[in-house]
Amino acid sequence: MTINLEDITLRPHTSADIPVVIERHEVLNWEEFKYPPDEFGKVVSDGLNQLVQIDGSQLWIAEYEPPNTDGNEVSSKLWAGSIGVVPMGEKTCQIRFLLVGSEFRSCGQGQRLLDTALDYCRAEGYKVAALGTTGDCVAAHKLYARNGFERLKVTQGTPWSKESTLEWWEKKL
User: Fold this and answer.
1) Cβ-count burial of 132 within 10 angstroms (0-12 exposed, 13-18 middle, 19+ buried)?
2) Ordered structural domains, the chain, with CATH
């Protein structure tokens, strides 16, 4: 399936999106990195619960609507990705929940989601954008570095694995 970025729309989340974002994180991170869904899903769920309770937080959902070629008027939108921003203080925000569905990678969707979050951070007057990731997310590291983020800290162990590492990245806006 060839994906055109123009066929993917971004919209603010609704409460119905929260379980979907959790499920997509659990499934994709199990498939790619073997992160245990229960433990990893709890971390994602706790973070999303925090996001929806903090004023100024945002979560965007990317949806793909394939071109209608069969004349059927029923919409068949597919989840294509997500990204969020959570304030961490007056000058710093955290980018969270960046995930692109595997079939929507390599079309610029990750860059588009990151651009959306960074544009929001700048518009809100933040001076620093920060994010946490793991050492396993090599493709994401390339995206972050390309966009001016620097890895500042690496710690061994995560809530779901002693073998994984947590990384903290920041970018001055």
Assistant:
1) middle
2) 5-172 (3.40.630.30)
